[in-house]
């Protein structure tokens, strides 16, 4: 019976694929629902003859830069396998890992701007770290395509809020208009499936891109909680309290995902969980870490004091050394320094360098002119090579990302995808 339901979903996806030329976007978080969705999409495309696979399909996944390490590794591995599968079978599917800009990273907002760690009423993070990167990508692609269909793995059974949100949006031919992106239609192919069916599907066979879902099942096994859906608008439920949230998440009372991973032997999580407790302590106005004037000058709990931001930076760098994980980047550090100079109680422009040097015993330049000179040099090289400066920066960042994780597997494909993206953008710019 359930096999027939899965086949029905694949058939309707196949039908939708062939019905028109609208490109597809597929939200993917690495959790069970979106893994099932992506798997159904791959199967549907595989069932179409190669010469008819002309529709561009983009899998979209966000990385907030503070993702739980084991989950970030798993998701990156899956995206890599999806790319290879697409190349091998000429599926015309690309897999994209989208990150917030450095200016909107978690640490730049907390340690640089002094935002208090987020809570339910001041959840500033989701828009900046999850929704904006997706919207920027979609807008860029829409400039080229004109319109698109966005497939999401949301299910009514997952939460009553989600059921209400989904029921409240008018559907036509199974597609709803996206609330913020007028030329995007949203499809929820697994909307009515219960959780048991999702696991039945995921565990019965390997993924079309290879590998099975037992590791994913193990991740869910230690604590029962919802999946953090890919965020497309603010009406989507909080991504806190999920398997796939940020390790820094202070929106939830308990971070069951991190605790579950620690219980299953991931010792890096112990220190990360402790740091999350530190963030909770710094957020509480009773602990004297916050200004008693709000950002708008009114009385009330305001931003973190500059002294508290300094303490947090020192603790974060110590954590980085202890865990051997890259938790904050040099670009974030430079931006934080810039912000401290403009804070209510500004420092002399050397505060970050002093903390970094003390912590690591290395000299760090806080000379922003150096960063500007680097940017100018990048612009010159980009002109010389006939690509956009942004593209060159993305290529360099990708190489850096691989060298930080001491691996090269997948790098050529990633570089090629960035260059393809550049060509598409240039073509779209010329066509306008
Ligand atoms: S997991 Fe928590 S910290 Fe991360 S974006 Fe969602 S609500 Fe914010």
Strand order of the largest sheet: 3-2-1-4-7-6-5
Gross morphology is globular
By helix and strand content, what is the structural category? alpha/beta
The main pleated sheet reads as:
7 strands, mixed
Please tell me the overall pLDDT. 84
Bound molecules: iron/sulfur cluster
How many beta-strand runs? 7
Radius of gyration, CA atoms, in whole angstroms: 22 Å
Which residues sit in consecutive blocks of at least 5 with pLDDT less than 50?
235-241
How many helices? The count is: 16
Helices and strands, in N-to-C order? HEHEHEHHEHEEEHHHHHHHHHH
Report, as a whole number of angstroms, the end-to-end distance.
50 Å
Helix content: 40-55%
Query: Strand-residue fraction?
Result: 5-15%
Keywords:
single chain, 432 residues, alpha/beta, seven-stranded mixed sheet, 16 helices, binds iron/sulfur cluster
Explained architecture:
The protein has helices spanning 2-19, 32-46, 69-89, 106-112, 125-145, 160-168, 195-204, 214-221, 256-263, 268-283, 306-323, 330-341, 351-360, 368-385, 389-404, 411-431, and strands at 24-27, 57-62, 93-98, 148-151, 171-172, 175-177, 184-187. With 432 residues, the protein is an alpha/beta fold. A 7-stranded mixed sheet has the order 3-2-1-4-7-6-5, with helices on both faces. Strand 6 and strand 7 (184-187) form a beta hairpin. Helix 9 runs antiparallel to helix 10 and helix 10 (268-283) runs antiparallel to helix 11 (306-323). The longest helix has 21 residues, at 69-89. The model is unreliable at 235-241 (pLDDT under 50). The structure holds iron/sulfur cluster. Iron/sulfur cluster is lined by residues 64, 118, 123, 125-126, 129-130, 238-240, 245-246, 248-249, 251.
